[in-house]
UniProtKB/TrEMBL annotation:
GO molecular-function term, one example from the UniProt record: serine-type exopeptidase activity
Coiled coil: none
Protein name (database record): Lysosomal Pro-X carboxypeptidase
Keywords of this entry: Glycoprotein, Hydrolase, Protease, Signal
Signal peptide limits: none
Family membership noted in the UniProt record: Belongs to the peptidase S28 family.
One GO term of the biological process aspect: proteolysis
InterPro entries: AB_hydrolase_fold, Peptidase_S28, Ser_carbopepase_S28_SKS
Pfam family membership, one: Peptidase_S28
Amino acid sequence: MNSSSLKVLLQWPISILAFVIFFSTTSTCVSATQPHLQRLSVRGRTFLREPETFSESVSEEFQTFYYNQTLDHFNYRPESYSTFQQRYVVNFKYWGGANASAPIFAYLGAEGDLDDDLPTIGFLTDNAHQFKALLVYIEHRYYGKSIPFGSREEALKNASIRGYFNSAQAIADYAEVLIHVKKKFFAENSPVIVVGASYGGMLASWFRLKYPHVALGALASSAPILYFEDITPQNGYYSIVTKDFREASESCYKTIRESWSEIDRVASEPNGLSILSTKFRTCDQLNNSDELKDYLDTIYCTAAQYNDPPMYPVTMACGGIDGAPEGSDILSRIFAGVVAFRGNRSCYHTKTNYFSIETIEGWAWQRCSEMVMPIGRGDNDTMFPPAPFNLTTFIRDCTSFYGVSPRPHWVTTYYGGHNIELILRRFASNIIFSNGLRDPYSSGGVLKNISDSVLGIFTVNGSHCLDILPTKSTDPEWLVTQRKAEVEIIESWIAQYYADLHAITK
């Protein structure tokens, strides 16, 4: 596969799971031929600010353990019984203890190192005292320190070994770890609430469906479980990005929409790429116009997906575009938006990767095997150039690179998704699907109540996974209300569990 195809393969608009063209090293949203996929993770905010870190006093509250995890939960071949060390982290500070059957809140790791999530996921620590909960954080196989076969190079070296790297194996891992934790700490009667964000939110909802005997309930934040096959329109992700910018400023939206053709026009002129490199103050000379367009796409998609208060990055970017000096040409206005969003810098790295190599490599494989999210754009249906998702091309490129064909229908076969309102009404229980409607991935989320206990909670102004971030004094009232509603629902689940436990054991 050539470098261009590899670039496409490493791109993904998903939060977002949305990125259906594999994933890019810049985690952008759009390319000349197919849309890039934005990362699904809560951690994309590092594009906007420095990642949060633990203070020494807080980090001491977390104890690291390793579980001797089964490599293959679903076969009985000799190699299936191989094991690897899976990391999980426990915070005992708030736990009411096994004698009180105090609950366990379990965070299900996603596509990255667990160390990155510990200071980021505030919902657990913010509510642990109220629930007297034991906090457990479990790392996803093939990420962080939970690598089979001794190293990432060995674990990803061929299709046979990579085959153990999938969501079904991951949630089976979580089941084994949680059963082990309950036995280890004599907490067999402690109810478990699983929590996940983005892809991890998908895992949390699927875990509750597949392992109801392990988890009493699930909080699935910004989980686009419906962005598969034809359940959600291809352009759902980009339509919301467009809507976010248009609601912020009509003139900003129009400027962005008109800029793509202007970039191509300038690039086609003699020394056009040098002109663009100078105008956008790129650290390296542009090799083609797609590099610049991909960079801008990354900015717009990131701003929309993580459009958090009080900064509101979409407003920041549009403020720069609309606030450019009077008489500025269209590309000067676009560059003013870059400066407003990224800050005034000596130069701008258009190829900078804001995610770890292990996340890029790992998620690229997951997208090319089972997480086939058909995110694309048509003609004139967003503020971006057309870039329809082409499944045939996607399968061809993935097969060429990995030697294994994607299974685009497996997620809906194994977990469901079609007619979800009908199917889950009687079958499922105790799942909260939380979303913010400014998050482009909300287009593939569950946005309404399916039953009395499978609930869709959303905020009009919310962004990706905002509800499970640490609370802040600046949080708007609508966000405080959303979190309060989630806590009250979980309280009701646990109260009912205790009533049932008492009735059965008395």
